[in-house]
Amino acid sequence: MPQVSSPKQLFVHELKDMYYAEKTLTKVLPKLADEASDRELSQAFTSHLRETKRHVANLEKVFRQLGEQPRAEQCPGIDGIKQEHDEFMEEQRNGGSDLIDSFLTGAASRTEHYEIAAYTGLVSMARALGERESVELLEQNLRQEKDALKKVESISKRIFKGAAKGDSPRARRATSASRRSSSKARTSATRSR
User: Fold this and answer.
1) Which distant-in-sequence residues (6+ apart) come within 8 Å of 82 by Cβ?
2) Any idea where the domains of the chain sit in the sequence?
3) Helix or strand or coil: residue 166?
4) How many CA atoms lie within 13 A of 156 on its CB side?
5) Which mean pLDDT values do the consecutive 10-residue runs of the chain (193 residues) have?
6) Contact of 26 with 53, CB cutoff 8 Å
7) How far lies 37's CA from each of 18, 150, 159, 167, in Å?
8) Cβ(146)–Cβ(118) below 8 Å
9) What is the CATH number of domain 7-167?
């Protein structure tokens, strides 16, 4: 990384980090949607992918407004979150779907918090630099990230409550199968009397 010696250079550096993060997420979100067994969670990842593609486009506009070429710079923050996900999923290949869905909501929440912090900083820098159009584009991204966090937190609460009560999709299937088995046994016992 070249020496940063002005607020504008720092702003461009941070834009490159965020551009890398958003571009990375356009590749990761389809994978997360496939890994999720909870339908609402999977749909949330798919919906956020569409938003993330718009975030990339907004960042490209900001680069152009600054007279810069859009360019990603490796972002250790997002790489760390991705690595944690990849390692967990490798270790839990045969884990239960409820456990995996719970982990995915946590990973999504961590990612959203990271993005919210980055966009908050970018908005402040753009405002200080007098880049009004950039502020508007970055605020759009920030609002959508905050909305995505609320959504994933809501899904997370439901998944955790269900898991705590044994009301997960897997538990419901097992309970249903157990009830059918008990019902058949009672019916069979009644007939043999």
Assistant:
1) 24, 28
2) 7-167
3) coil
4) 15
5) 85 97 97 96 97 98 97 95 94 82 95 98 98 98 98 95 66 42 48 50
6) yes
7) 29, 20, 11, 14
8) no
9) 1.20.1260.10
